[in-house]
C-alpha cells in the first residue's frame, strides 16, 4: 500500500483528492489546522495531524512515497506580494526540505493554470506557453510561478511533478471557494456576465489527475488539468439549464469592468482590501482558455462534462442548505 502525505485537506480539491486516494487504497496522512475541520472520520488508512505549514512534520514523512501539496493562499483581496509569498512559496520551501530530508521519493505541487499563457488566435494555452498579462500582475499567480521555478531547480533527489488546474467546480466546496461563481447566476432574476471566459474542470477530475501524476508524471514536468473552454455566458447558461431557470442575461460592458478595476486600484493604494483591481477585472474580459492534451495523453485522464460538475456542486449546496435548516451535521 502506497503512503502519501497531503496538505490542504479540507478545501474543495483536498477533500476530493483524499476521497479518491482512499478509494484507490492509498494510506493517507493529512495536515489540518484543527481535526474538527474535517467532517468525515479517520480510519486505519486515513489519519489527521494538527499543525500549520511551518510545523515540523518530519516524523510523519518517514516511509512516505509522495507528498501532495494542495494548501495555498488563494484570496484575491490581499494587498502585498508578501501576503501570498509566505504561504505559497516560503511554506513550500519548508515542506519540500522536510520531504527531502525524509527521503520522500516524489513531491506533487498543485499550482494554477494562470502561471501558463492562455489561449490566443494561434491556439489554446499549454504547458509550454509563457505567462501573460493580467496574470503577470497577479500576486497569487506570481507566487505560484516563483514556487514552480524553485521546485524545478531542486528536483534532483526528490522528484517534482507540477499540476496546473484551471477553474474547478464540484462537490465538497464547503466555504464555498470557486463555487461562489454558481451563486452569481443561481436563483437570480437578472444575471450580469462579463464578456470573457474560462476553462472549467470537474474537481473530481483534478483529484484523479493528481493521483495519475503521482503514479505516472515525469520528473520536472507540468500538466494542465483542464477541460471545457466556455464564455461566462455559456457557463451561466448551463447553470440555468440545470436549475430550470430563465433569468434575463445582461452583458457587463468592458468599460464598466475597466472602471471598477481602476476604483479597486485606488482602494488598494489606500490600504483597503478588495478583490477589485485592474488585473482582476481584465481577467474577466479575456478568454482564459487552455488545452488538456498533454494530461489526457500522458496521464490517461478522461474528463467529465462540466454539466456533471455543476450538477454535483449544486446538489452538494442544496444538501448543505437542507442540513442547516433541519439542524443536521454537515457532510465533508
What's the CATH class, please? Answer: Alpha Beta
N-to-C span: 25 Å
Instruction: Please give the count of helices.
Output: 10
Order of helices and strands: EHEEEHEHEEHEEHEEHEHHEHH
Summarize the biggest pleated sheet: 7 strands, parallel
For the biggest β-sheet, the strand order reads: 3-2-1-4-5-6-10
Approximate shape:
globular
Q: Which structural class best describes the helix and strand composition? A: alpha/beta
Give the low-pLDDT segments. none
- Name of the CATH superfamily: NAD(P)-binding Rossmann-like Domain
Helix content class:
25-40%
Computed CA radius of gyration, to the nearest angstrom: 20 Å
Q: Which topology does CATH recognise?
A: Rossmann fold
Record field, number of beta strands: 13
How does CATH name the architecture?
3-Layer(aba) Sandwich
Number of domains: 1
Kindly estimate the percentage of residues that lie in beta strands according to DSSP: 15-25%
Q: What would the average pLDDT be, to the nearest integer? A: 94
Protein name: Nucleoside-diphosphate-sugar epimerase
Organism: Chryseobacterium lathyri
InterPro entries: Epimerase_deHydtase, NAD(P)-bd_dom_sf, NAD(P)-dependent_oxidoreduct
Domain NAD-dependent epimerase/dehydratase: 4-224
How would you characterize the overall build of this protein?
Residues 4-224 form the NAD-dependent epimerase/dehydratase domain. InterPro entries: Epimerase_deHydtase, NAD(P)-bd_dom_sf, NAD(P)-dependent_oxidoreduct. This is Nucleoside-diphosphate-sugar epimerase. This protein has 332 residues and is an alpha/beta fold. The chain has a single domain (3-178, 198-229, 289-326), classed as Rossmann fold (3-Layer(aba) Sandwich), CATH 3.40.50.720. Helices cover 38% and strands 18% of the residues. The protein is built from 10 helices and 13 strands. The strands form 3 sheets. The protein has a 7-stranded parallel sheet, sandwiched between helices. Strands 7, 9, 11 and 13 form a 4-stranded mixed sheet that branches. Helix 1 packs across helix 5 (203-216). The longest helix has 21 residues, at 81-101. The protein starts with a strand and ends in a 6-residue tail after the last helix. The model has no long low-confidence stretch (mean pLDDT 94).
Amino acid at each position: 500500500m502506497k503512503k502519501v502525505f497531503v496538505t490542504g485537506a479540507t478545501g474543495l480539491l483536498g477533500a476530493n483528492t483524499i476521497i479518491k486516494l482512499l478509494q484507490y487504497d492509498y494510506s493517507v496522512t493529512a495536515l489540518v489546522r484543527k481535526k474538527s475541520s474535517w467532517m468525515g472520520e479517520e480510519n486505519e488508512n486515513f489519519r489527521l495531524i494538527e499543525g500549520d505549514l511551518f510545523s515540523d512534520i518530519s516524523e510523519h514523512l518517514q516511509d512516505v512515497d509522495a507528498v501532495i501539496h494542495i494548501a495555498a493562499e488563494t484570496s484575491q483581496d490581499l494587498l502585498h506580494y508578501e501576503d501570498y509569498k509566505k504561504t505559497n512559496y516560503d511554506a513550500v520551501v519548508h515542506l519540500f526540505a522536510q520531504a527531502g530530508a525524509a527521503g520522500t521519493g516524489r513531491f506533487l505541487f498543485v499550482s494554477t493554470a494562470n502561471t501558463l499563457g492562455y489561449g490566443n488566435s494561434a491556439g489554446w494555452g499549454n504547458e509550454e506557453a509563457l505567462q501573460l498579462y493580467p496574470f503577470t500582475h497577479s500576486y497569487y499567480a506570481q507566487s505560484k510561478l516563483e514556487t514552480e521555478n524553485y521546485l524545478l531547480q531542486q528536483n534532483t533527489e526528490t522528484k517534482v511533478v507540477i499540476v496546473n488546474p484551471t477553474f474547478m467546480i464540484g462537490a465538497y466546496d464547503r466555504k464555498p471557494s470557486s463555487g461562489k461563481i454558481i451563486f452569481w447566476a443561481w436563483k437570480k432574476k437578472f444575471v450580469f456576465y462579463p464578456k470573457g471566459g474560462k476553462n472549467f474542470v470537474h474537481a473530481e477530475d483534478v483529484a484523479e489527475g493528481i493521483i495519475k501524476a503521482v503514479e505516472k508524471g515525469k520528473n520536472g514536468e507540468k500538466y494542465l488539468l483542464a477541460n471545457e473552454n466556455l464564455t461566462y455566458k455559456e457557463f451561466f447558461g448551463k447553470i440555468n439549464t440545470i436549475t430550470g431557470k430563465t433569468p434575463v442575461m445582461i452583458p457587463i460592458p468592458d468599460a464598466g469592468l475597466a472602471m471598477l478595476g481602476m476604483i479597486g486600484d485606488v482602494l488598494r493604494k489606500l490600504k483597503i482590501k478588495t478583490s477589485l483591481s485592474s488585473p482582476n477585472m481584465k481577467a474577466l474580459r479575456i478568454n482564459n482558455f487552455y488545452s488538456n492534451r498533454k494530461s489526457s495523453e500522458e496521464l490517461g485522464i478522461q474528463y467529465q462534462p462540466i454539466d456533471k460538475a455543476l450538477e454535483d456542486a449544486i446538489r452538494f449546496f442544496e444538501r448543505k442548505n437542507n442540513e442547516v435548516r433541519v439542524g443536521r451535521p454537515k457532510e465533508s
